[in-house]
Amino acid sequence: MKNATVTINYESFQSIKKNADKYDELIRTKEDVLNKNHEFIETLCTCLEKANEQKVSANKQYFIAKGIQAICKHFNMTVEAEYGELDEGKAPKK
Asked: Is the CB of residue 92 less than 8 Å from the CB of residue 54?
């Protein structure tokens, strides 16, 4: 059966191809979602780590605000609608 030839009608072939294309699209969509979730989690972890490293509370608030903005972006929310006026803190000097 290694070099067997199979004959199917065109309609059956099209049905198989259509299902295979749907499967490929679902796989790509799943990978896109996983990548976006991974990036979101990395952003949140980075914001928390940087906030924790800061000595000045305004600098801590800066990274907390960045995390809140990332959450709102990820879940298609607006910062203003969810939190009103967000204290964005002060970016630390490098």
From this structure: yes
pLDDT digits (tens, 9 = 90+) for 19-41: 999 999 999 999 999 999 999 99
CA atoms of 32 and 88, how far apart (whole Å): 30
The pTM assigned to this predicted structure is: 0.73
d(CA 66, CA 45): 11
For 92, counting Cβ atoms within 10 Å of its Cβ (0-12 exposed, 13-18 middle, 19+ buried), the class is: middle
C-alpha 7/C-alpha 55 separation (Å) is 72
* Residue 30 belongs to a domain: yes
Q: How far apart are CA 61 and CA 88, in angstroms?
A: 6
- Is 92 inside a domain boundary? no
What are the backbone dihedrals phi and psi of residue 86, each rounded to the nearest 5 degrees, phi first?
Answer: -90, 130
